[in-house]
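Researcher: Re-running this chain for the archive, since the previous output was lost when a drive failed. Same request as before.
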Amino acid sequence: MKLILASNNAHKLREIKEILGGCFDEIVTLREAGIDHETVEDGETFLENAAKKAREIAEISGCCALADDSGLCVDALGGAPGVYSARFAGVHGDDEANNELLLKKLENVDNRAAHFTCAVVLARPDGSEVSAEGYFYGEIAHALAGENGFGYDPLFYLPEYGCTSAQLSPEEKNRISHRGNALRALLEKLHG
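Model: Regenerated structure tokens:
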């Protein structure tokens, strides 16, 4: 059975293959499946966005499709940037501007608690779905640190590790990240 990842992100593909590889004969990206489709992510929750992406790709392909949506939720900002994490500063995917805006909004704030949330949805061509969520807890640092990762990783400080998410190796991060946790929860449901 083939699984199409509703993304072209090589990092996601590697992580998904590591965790779900035993459940499918083949796991491919949209590009590898020959699908050129962009889902409009207009949901109010991570789960709504992930479900919409997975459903659209399952319908287009006639195969099982897996989609995720994730973002950073900062307690002092009422859960923002949330589903707007990638476009927090206005332009989608401008990590530098997003991090600058986050630091500015937290300039004189003591409570820097935050977490990443990831929702994953597996949609099947018959319309059935399996979903799961995973979390990754930490706090927002006062300055960027680390070269690994992307997005808010250089600002996401992990007190128990004494470093930011961007200072962990990719293997360490995958073991404890929100996406890894969501995928492992999904795997349990698939085998349950």
